[in-house]
Structure formats: C-alpha cells, structure tokens
Design a protein that fits this description.
Elements lengths: L2 E2 L4 E5 L2 H8 L18 H18 L9 E6 L2 E8 L7 E8 L8 H14 L6 E7 L3 H9 L3 E5 L3 E7 L18
Parallel strand pairs: 5-6
Antiparallel strand pairs: 1-2, 2-3, 3-4, 4-5, 6-8, 7-8
Helix pairs in contact: 1-2
Length: 182
C-alpha cells in the first residue's frame, strides 16, 4: 500500500485470512512477514475481529476492504496496526492505531497515520477523518497533531481530533467546543 519516504514503513491491507491469523495470534511464516515481539496488541485483535465481522456487509464474499485493518510494517516486520472503524458515515471515517512498545517514540505511529490519511484521500466518500484518544494518552495526542489533525472536542473521558481532507483543517469546530452546543 503506501510507503513513508522518511523510513522503510508501509501499510499492508489485511485480507480475511491475515486478519483471522492476527485475531488468533497465529502467524503463518509461509505467507506473513515476521511479527515484532508483542504484536498483535490487544487493540489489534479487537480491530481485526470487528473487521472480519463487517466484511460480509461490505461486499458479500469480499476478502478485504479498504475501510478495514492495515498492518504497519517497518523494515519488513509488522510493528502495529492501523485502520478505519468501517466505511464512511456522512463522509466521515474514524481511524484507530497502535504500535508495539519497541518502536514507540520514533515517529512510526505518526508516519503510519500520515500514510493512512493519504489512503483516506483516495477513497470515495471520505471528506474527513476523526480520531479519539484517552485524555491521559499524551503520546497518541501528539501523533494525531503531528499528522495534521486538530483537537476539536475535549470531554471528560476522550479528546476528539479530526482533519478535513480537502483543506487540511479541523473544519469549522474549535478545540474544546462540543459540536452539539452551537
């Protein structure tokens, strides 16, 4: 799929078989690239389970869908996952991601998110990408901001970020303003 110019990083869209192997934590050395220690993370297994369950709704017997789960591969090794939480709703998709502890703090998650935003730009029906993070997850907040997303809503449990793919802004919303309060 996409590749980041600053490092040997790529996103690999998972088909049903790969997703099921990730879900059950059973790598097939004959077809899968090596997995980093600690991959898949708990979030990866949840994400691929949701992806596999939504595949029938996205195209019947389809084996993969662009609005699904991608492995983050650095130098040929799977170090994490990133994906959309399904197809767009009102031209909006939500993204989620995670990388293994060994690569955190090196820009891998930011580079993966930037690549995913490029994927989103190429998908029909997507105008905005949103993401959310726990209020205490400063690293994830930095990843989204470094990738060009804007903080648009702060709630007690989550902070919400977004980017308008047409103009690169956080849309008309302002940080800390609940969109329902306007």
């Amino acid at each position: 799929m996409g590749q980041d110019a600053g490092m040997a990083l790529e996103l690999r869209l998972c088909d049903r078989g790969t997703a099921q192997r990730v879900m059950f934590r059973r790598r097939d050395p004959a077809v899968d690239p090596p997995w980093a220690d600690e991959y898949p993370l708990e979030g990866d297994t949840r994400a691929v389970a949701a992806y596999v369950s939504q595949l029938p709704r996205l195209g019947g017997d389809t084996t993969s869908n662009s609005f699904g789960y991608y492995q983050v591969v650095e130098d040929g090794v799977v170090v994490g996952g990133i994906g959309f939480h399904g197809p767009p709703k009102g031209h909006v998709v939500e993204v989620g991601y995670g990388v293994v502890p060994a690569v955190r703090g090196r820009g891998v998650a930011t580079a993966a998110l930037r690549l995913m935003l490029e994927v989103a730009r190429g998908l029909e029906g997507v105008g905005r990408v949103v993401g959310r993070t726990d209020t205490t997850n400063v690293a994830s907040q930095r990843v989204m901001m470094a990738a060009g997303m804007y903080l648009v809503t702060q709630r007690a449990d989550f902070w919400h970020y977004e980017i308008d793919l047409e103009d690169g802004s956080g849309s008309a919303r302002q940080a800390g303003v609940d969109p329902g309060s306007r």
